């Protein structure tokens, strides 16, 4: 499975749940922000295409949004996954001799 597919499979459903949660809470700006990230994530076809959505997720704290406890828990999980996946993508490919 390619890295972009793995990232979508791990982060996509969490983003979907977060967007629904934010929509239910009436947080339209936050909902639109994460929907844009989700679109970028789903359009990624190669590892380098993942840089933008992963970077945007990792800088979410700097945007200054405040979240409910439920949304904050989802964001924490998304950031944890994004960090793990960014580290995995940063690993050099194994060399064969």
Tell me what you see in this structure.
- The chain is mainly alpha-helical.
- The protein has five helices and no strands.
- The protein has helices spanning 3-25, 28-43, 51-58, 60-63, 69-90.
- The longest helix has 23 residues, at 3-25.
What is the rounded Rg?
14 Å
Low-confidence stretches: none
Tell me the strand percentage band.
under 5%
Globular, elongated, flat, extended or rod-shaped: what is the shape? Answer: globular
Q: Please report the distance between the alpha carbons of the first and last residues.
A: 23 Å
User: What profile does the largest beta sheet have?
Assistant: none
Please write the string of helix (H) and strand (E) elements: HHHHH
The count of helical stretches stands at 5
- Structural class comes to mainly alpha
- Whole-number average pLDDT? 84
Fraction of residues in H or I helices: over 70%
- How many strand elements? 0
């Amino acid at each position: 499975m390619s890295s972009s597919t793995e990232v979508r499979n791990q982060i996509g459903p969490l983003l979907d749940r977060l967007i629904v949660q934010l929509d239910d809470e009436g947080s339209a700006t936050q909902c639109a922000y994460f929907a844009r990230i989700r679109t970028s994530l789903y359009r990624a076809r190669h590892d380098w295409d993942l840089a933008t959505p992963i970077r945007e997720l990792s800088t979410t704290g700097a945007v200054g949004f405040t979240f409910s406890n439920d949304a904050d828990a989802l964001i924490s999980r998304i950031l944890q996954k994004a960090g793990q996946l960014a580290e995995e993508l940063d690993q050099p490919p194994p060399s064969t001799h």
